[in-house]
Task: structure prediction
Amino acid sequence: MNKCYSIKFIGILFLFLFSFFIFSCSKNDPPEPKVEEKDDEFLYAFERYEIVGKKMYAGSEDGAVDRTEQFDPEKYFRTAYFDKSKLEYFKQDSIRAVKDTLIEYPLNYEANTFKFKTGDKDSLFRWNIYAKFWQYYGKFPENKQEISYERYFVRLIKDRKEGMSFYLDERGEGFVDDKSFFYGNIYHFPTSKRMTEATDTLAYCNVRYIYKLVKK
Result:
Protein backbone atom coordinates (compact mmCIF):
# COMPACT_ATOMS: atom_id res chain seq x y z
CA MET A 1 0.00 0.00 0.00
CA ASN A 2 1.25 3.46 -0.87
CA LYS A 3 2.65 5.27 2.14
CA CYS A 4 0.56 8.36 1.38
CA TYR A 5 -2.64 6.33 1.28
CA SER A 6 -1.65 4.61 4.56
CA ILE A 7 -1.35 7.97 6.30
CA LYS A 8 -4.70 9.09 4.92
CA PHE A 9 -6.32 5.83 5.98
CA ILE A 10 -4.93 6.09 9.50
CA GLY A 11 -6.14 9.71 9.71
CA ILE A 12 -9.64 8.80 8.58
CA LEU A 13 -9.75 5.87 10.99
CA PHE A 14 -8.66 8.14 13.86
CA LEU A 15 -11.33 10.71 13.07
CA PHE A 16 -13.98 7.97 12.90
CA LEU A 17 -12.96 6.46 16.25
CA PHE A 18 -12.79 9.92 17.88
CA SER A 19 -16.26 10.85 16.57
CA PHE A 20 -17.67 7.51 17.78
CA PHE A 21 -16.17 8.07 21.22
CA ILE A 22 -17.66 11.56 21.50
CA PHE A 23 -21.08 10.33 20.29
CA SER A 24 -21.06 7.43 22.77
CA CYS A 25 -20.17 9.66 25.70
CA SER A 26 -22.79 12.27 24.86
CA LYS A 27 -25.39 9.55 24.36
CA ASN A 28 -24.75 8.07 27.80
CA ASP A 29 -24.61 11.40 29.64
CA PRO A 30 -27.65 12.01 31.88
CA PRO A 31 -30.07 14.66 30.56
CA GLU A 32 -29.79 18.15 31.97
CA PRO A 33 -32.27 18.63 34.84
CA LYS A 34 -35.20 20.91 34.05
CA VAL A 35 -35.25 24.02 36.19
CA GLU A 36 -38.82 24.68 37.33
CA GLU A 37 -39.70 28.25 38.17
CA LYS A 38 -41.06 28.63 41.67
CA ASP A 39 -44.53 30.12 41.89
CA ASP A 40 -44.86 33.52 43.52
CA GLU A 41 -45.39 32.93 47.22
CA PHE A 42 -45.85 35.55 49.93
CA LEU A 43 -46.30 35.14 53.67
CA TYR A 44 -48.03 37.84 55.73
CA ALA A 45 -48.08 38.10 59.53
CA PHE A 46 -50.75 39.86 61.55
CA GLU A 47 -49.74 43.41 62.45
CA ARG A 48 -52.82 45.25 63.74
CA TYR A 49 -56.53 45.84 63.35
CA GLU A 50 -58.43 49.09 63.06
CA ILE A 51 -62.01 49.92 64.01
CA VAL A 52 -63.20 51.64 60.85
CA GLY A 53 -66.71 52.43 62.03
CA LYS A 54 -69.06 51.75 64.92
CA LYS A 55 -72.66 52.45 65.95
CA MET A 56 -74.89 51.75 68.90
CA TYR A 57 -78.63 52.39 69.37
CA ALA A 58 -80.75 51.85 72.47
CA GLY A 59 -84.55 51.68 72.52
CA SER A 60 -86.86 54.26 74.09
CA GLU A 61 -90.53 55.22 73.93
CA ASP A 62 -89.66 57.67 71.14
CA GLY A 63 -87.56 55.21 69.17
CA ALA A 64 -83.81 54.63 68.88
CA VAL A 65 -81.39 56.76 70.85
CA ASP A 66 -77.82 57.06 69.55
CA ARG A 67 -75.33 55.80 72.18
CA THR A 68 -72.29 55.59 69.90
CA GLU A 69 -70.15 57.97 71.95
CA GLN A 70 -70.32 55.65 74.96
CA PHE A 71 -69.87 52.50 72.86
CA ASP A 72 -66.53 50.66 73.16
CA PRO A 73 -66.56 47.59 70.84
CA GLU A 74 -63.51 46.10 72.59
CA LYS A 75 -65.39 45.90 75.88
CA TYR A 76 -68.82 45.20 74.43
CA PHE A 77 -68.00 42.26 72.17
CA ARG A 78 -66.41 39.68 74.47
CA THR A 79 -65.87 35.94 74.16
CA ALA A 80 -68.04 33.75 76.38
CA TYR A 81 -65.28 31.64 77.92
CA PHE A 82 -62.09 33.69 77.87
CA ASP A 83 -63.41 37.19 78.60
CA LYS A 84 -61.39 38.46 75.69
CA SER A 85 -62.27 40.92 72.97
CA LYS A 86 -63.81 39.14 69.99
CA LEU A 87 -62.06 41.61 67.72
CA GLU A 88 -58.72 40.23 68.91
CA TYR A 89 -59.75 36.63 69.47
CA PHE A 90 -61.13 35.93 66.00
CA LYS A 91 -58.24 37.31 63.97
CA GLN A 92 -56.15 35.11 61.69
CA ASP A 93 -52.51 34.57 62.66
CA SER A 94 -51.10 34.79 59.15
CA ILE A 95 -52.02 34.68 55.48
CA ARG A 96 -50.12 32.96 52.68
CA ALA A 97 -50.59 33.97 49.04
CA VAL A 98 -49.54 31.36 46.50
CA LYS A 99 -50.18 32.31 42.90
CA ASP A 100 -54.00 32.74 42.77
CA THR A 101 -54.77 31.14 46.16
CA LEU A 102 -54.99 32.58 49.68
CA ILE A 103 -54.59 30.43 52.78
CA GLU A 104 -55.60 31.73 56.21
CA TYR A 105 -53.92 30.33 59.30
CA PRO A 106 -54.87 28.64 61.54
CA LEU A 107 -56.84 26.34 59.23
CA ASN A 108 -60.15 26.03 61.08
CA TYR A 109 -62.57 25.68 58.18
CA GLU A 110 -62.70 24.46 54.60
CA ALA A 111 -63.17 28.07 53.55
CA ASN A 112 -59.73 29.05 54.91
CA THR A 113 -58.27 28.19 51.49
CA PHE A 114 -59.77 29.94 48.48
CA LYS A 115 -59.07 31.44 45.08
CA PHE A 116 -58.69 35.20 44.86
CA LYS A 117 -58.48 37.97 42.30
CA THR A 118 -57.79 41.71 42.47
CA GLY A 119 -59.83 44.58 41.06
CA ASP A 120 -59.75 48.37 40.89
CA LYS A 121 -58.14 50.42 43.65
CA ASP A 122 -56.34 47.40 45.17
CA SER A 123 -59.67 45.68 45.92
CA LEU A 124 -59.43 41.97 46.68
CA PHE A 125 -62.12 39.37 46.02
CA ARG A 126 -62.38 35.79 47.25
CA TRP A 127 -64.25 32.97 45.56
CA ASN A 128 -67.09 31.93 47.84
CA ILE A 129 -67.03 28.13 47.56
CA TYR A 130 -70.50 27.77 49.03
CA ALA A 131 -72.50 30.43 47.19
CA LYS A 132 -70.30 30.33 44.05
CA PHE A 133 -69.59 34.02 43.50
CA TRP A 134 -66.74 36.52 43.84
CA GLN A 135 -67.11 38.08 47.27
CA TYR A 136 -65.39 41.28 48.37
CA TYR A 137 -62.64 40.44 50.86
CA GLY A 138 -60.36 43.43 51.43
CA LYS A 139 -57.29 45.13 49.96
CA PHE A 140 -54.16 43.79 48.25
CA PRO A 141 -51.88 46.63 47.05
CA GLU A 142 -49.92 46.03 43.86
CA ASN A 143 -46.57 46.23 45.69
CA LYS A 144 -47.69 43.23 47.80
CA GLN A 145 -46.20 44.68 50.98
CA GLU A 146 -49.42 44.10 52.91
CA ILE A 147 -52.84 42.50 52.70
CA SER A 148 -56.02 43.23 54.64
CA TYR A 149 -59.54 41.91 55.07
CA GLU A 150 -62.74 43.35 56.54
CA ARG A 151 -65.07 42.00 59.22
CA TYR A 152 -68.07 43.18 61.20
CA PHE A 153 -69.36 42.34 64.67
CA VAL A 154 -72.99 42.91 65.59
CA ARG A 155 -75.51 42.40 68.37
CA LEU A 156 -79.21 42.99 67.87
CA ILE A 157 -81.79 42.46 70.61
CA LYS A 158 -85.50 42.66 69.96
CA ASP A 159 -87.52 41.24 72.84
CA ARG A 160 -91.32 41.27 72.57
CA LYS A 161 -93.96 39.68 74.82
CA GLU A 162 -96.27 39.76 71.84
CA GLY A 163 -95.11 39.47 68.28
CA MET A 164 -91.74 38.56 66.88
CA SER A 165 -88.68 38.54 69.13
CA PHE A 166 -85.18 38.24 67.74
CA TYR A 167 -81.62 37.99 69.06
CA LEU A 168 -78.54 38.24 66.88
CA ASP A 169 -74.91 38.05 68.02
CA GLU A 170 -72.49 37.31 65.19
CA ARG A 171 -69.49 38.30 63.11
CA GLY A 172 -69.22 38.24 59.36
CA GLU A 173 -67.21 39.25 56.31
CA GLY A 174 -67.31 42.78 54.95
CA PHE A 175 -68.69 46.00 56.43
CA VAL A 176 -72.24 46.86 57.49
CA ASP A 177 -74.21 50.04 58.14
CA ASP A 178 -77.67 51.07 59.35
CA LYS A 179 -79.24 49.85 56.11
CA SER A 180 -78.11 46.32 56.94
CA PHE A 181 -80.49 46.24 59.93
CA PHE A 182 -83.22 48.85 59.46
CA TYR A 183 -85.33 47.46 56.65
CA GLY A 184 -88.51 45.48 56.09
CA ASN A 185 -87.33 42.22 57.63
CA ILE A 186 -89.79 41.01 60.30
CA TYR A 187 -86.92 39.87 62.50
CA HIS A 188 -85.15 43.23 62.49
CA PHE A 189 -86.50 46.72 63.10
CA PRO A 190 -88.10 48.18 59.96
CA THR A 191 -86.94 51.64 61.09
CA SER A 192 -85.12 53.07 64.09
CA LYS A 193 -88.47 54.44 65.27
CA ARG A 194 -89.59 50.87 65.97
CA MET A 195 -87.00 50.44 68.72
CA THR A 196 -89.59 51.28 71.37
CA GLU A 197 -88.61 48.95 74.22
CA ALA A 198 -85.89 49.86 76.74
CA THR A 199 -84.19 46.52 76.03
CA ASP A 200 -84.05 47.09 72.26
CA THR A 201 -80.42 47.16 71.17
CA LEU A 202 -78.41 47.45 67.99
CA ALA A 203 -74.62 47.62 68.19
CA TYR A 204 -72.12 46.97 65.43
CA CYS A 205 -68.57 47.79 64.42
CA ASN A 206 -66.51 47.38 61.26
CA VAL A 207 -62.93 46.19 61.61
CA ARG A 208 -60.03 46.05 59.15
CA TYR A 209 -57.32 43.44 59.82
CA ILE A 210 -53.91 44.31 58.40
CA TYR A 211 -51.06 41.87 57.66
CA LYS A 212 -47.49 42.80 56.69
CA LEU A 213 -45.20 40.89 54.34
CA VAL A 214 -42.59 38.87 56.26
CA LYS A 215 -41.35 36.39 53.66
CA LYS A 216 -41.27 36.08 49.90
Q: What stands out?
A: The longest strand covers residues 41-58.
